[in-house]
Request: fold
Amino acid sequence: MLLLQRRGRVTAAELARELEVSQRTVLRDIEALSGAGVPIYATRGPGGGFQLLDGYQPELSEPAAWQPSNRRPGRPRRAAVRISPEGRRLAALLGRLQPLRVRRAVPADEDGWMEATFRLRTMDGAVTDVLSLGPQIEVIEPPELRREVGRRLREAASFYFAGGEV
Reply:
């Protein structure tokens, strides 16, 4: 995205050469960015290539400012939750938190609540998915997901309680 932001229109061959990957990898990455909501479009023919929609300003910093991740490369980030049996059924029915992986090594409590994990693709998507399950789920980690779910719940509750305090 930084290359597209800086240079405007860039061909798949130029991106592949610059990033030292295959053109097929560039095409997969472009498709993934587009699927994640980044407005990238292609222009065919001579002078064509990929570019960001005019006016789009991604919130990116220079690579030198990027912080290293504390997870292993190539491994998707996962969130851990406690979920009720009804929450598991609801998640499957609504297609939320998929794939939801129940931790069989941790036994269910007396009410059937189990620990599970799901792939954390985007924070907003995860917050929406968790909120869609209502009181049938509790976020364990990451802490930023737990905080954001709590913040959104307090915001929603303020509409229903006098004075805005919950």
Q: What stands out?
A: Residues 18 and 150 are 42 Å apart (CA to CA). The longest strand covers residues 78-83. Strands lie at 40-43, 49-52, 78-83, 101-102, 114-119, 137-141. DSSP finds six helices and six strands in the chain.
